[in-house]
Amino acid sequence: MTKIDKLAVVHPDADIGPNCEIGPFCTIGPHVVIGANTKLRSHVVVEPHTTIGEDTDIFPFVTIGIQSQDVKYVPGTVTYTKVGARNVIREFVSIHSGTLEGSSTVVGDDCNLLTQSHVAHNCQVGNHVTMSHSATLAGHAVLGDYANIGGLAAIHQFCHIGKASMVGGMARVVQDVLPFTIAEGFPAKMRVINKVGMQRAGYTTEEIAEVRKAFRILFMRQLRLETATQQVEQEFPNSENVKLMIESINSSQRGLARPESETMEINLSD
Fold this sequence. Notes:
Strand order of the largest sheet: 1-4-7-10-13-16-19-22-25-27-28
Number of helices: 5
Strand content: 25-35%
Oligomer: single chain
Distance between the termini: 54 Å
């Protein structure tokens, strides 16, 4: 049975699933769909054209589907926000809608967005993503599945943070971070393979070893990136994880957060 507090305001055109809880002072606009068993604790604002999946727990003072802050936004434009299932969204998180007509901001399933983290317009956030306290995504940023963004880290617009990668706390990310790596610093640079993150995501010891070796070939042998990429492709022709790293290199628009020279010592002793 759905419970809607008498102090909540729910538009009649909103679709609230079974067994949801809508707490006091929540405001839900038209054309909103909220999946079964989802809980809005209090003071949550869900703007029009927003979808939230089932079994999601949303804490006080969260805003979802709010108008884009992009200066290119045209008032009256219809844009969308899609949040998946089984997410935990903590206090003061903000998830903004897209900018251009018909565009979307997307957050996947099983994510954990901690207090004051921000997902800007047109971002694409994968599944099992963690954004720590006050982590910030600028517009059009992409986070792969199992990405982990440290507290107070800021991701520049259009940056791609790869699958099962980690960005350290307070990092300033202005270039792409490859899958399975750890990046930190100001500006952020890739340092090592995210071994612990890969283990937690279910990767085998062999898969982790392949990715580590590929990373060393790419960045620790002082090869031109084109040459290193070809060598990696030849050495690991059947590794889907290495292929994902190569695809991320080839598709990068902002360039890579390449390791600095002192990173070599870290990797050699790893």
